[in-house]
Amino acid sequence: MATSQMPLFLLVLLALVASTSASPPIHDVLKVFGFPPGLLPDSVESYILCPLEEGFNFTIYLKNTCQVQYTPITTIRFMKEITGQIKVFSITQLKGIQAALQYISGDIYWLNIINIRADDVYLHLTVFEIFLMLVEKEAMASIPTCQDLALDASDSSPKRISQLPVSLRSRCYVGDGSVERVV
C-alpha cells in the first residue's frame, strides 16, 4: 500500500474499532487487507498489529499448534505464534505457517510458507521463494476449526499482551480471537 493510502487504511481500521468499541476480530482484519477470513483457524487467542510506513507488523497467538485440511490436497499447519508483515493483498516475512507436501511415496514434508499474495480468486503461497502453491480463496471463505497437534510440548504458553512493554502496547492494535480493546 502506498504511503499516501496509509491514512485511508487507518481510517477504515479505526472505523472497525469504533463500531465494536474494541479492536476488530482478526478474521475481520484479514478481510480489510483482501484475505479470506478462513486463512486463520478459529483457535486465535490474541493478536498484535503495529503500524509501519507501509502496512503493519503482526503477531498472532493461537491456543495450540494445529492444522487444517482446506482441500483434499491442501493441508496447512499453524504454530502457536505466527509473525509477519501485512499490507493490502500481501503478507511477507511470514513465520509460523507450513504447508504439507506429499510425495508419490506417501512421505509428507512440511514446508514453511514465507509469503502470501492474494488476487481476486487465488491465494499464492510462496515456499522457499521458488515453489508456489495456489489455493482458491473460496476454500478459505469460512473460519475452520483447527485440529490440535502435540508438537510444542516443550513450548511455554504464548506471551500475554499484558507482558509487553507499555511503549509497544501504546503504538499497536491489540485484540483477542474475537474482540478486545485498542491500547
UniProtKB/TrEMBL annotation:
Q: Which residues form the signal peptide?
A: 1-22
Q: Which domain of life is it from?
A: Eukaryota
One Pfam family cited in the UniProt record for this chain: DUF538
Write down the InterPro entries for this protein, in alphabetical order: At5g01610-like (IPR036758), DUF538 (IPR007493)
Coiled-coil features, chain-numbered ranges: none
Q: Transmembrane region positions? A: none
- Keywords noted in UniProt: Signal
For whether the record's keyword set contains Signal, the answer is yes
The name of this protein is Uncharacterized protein
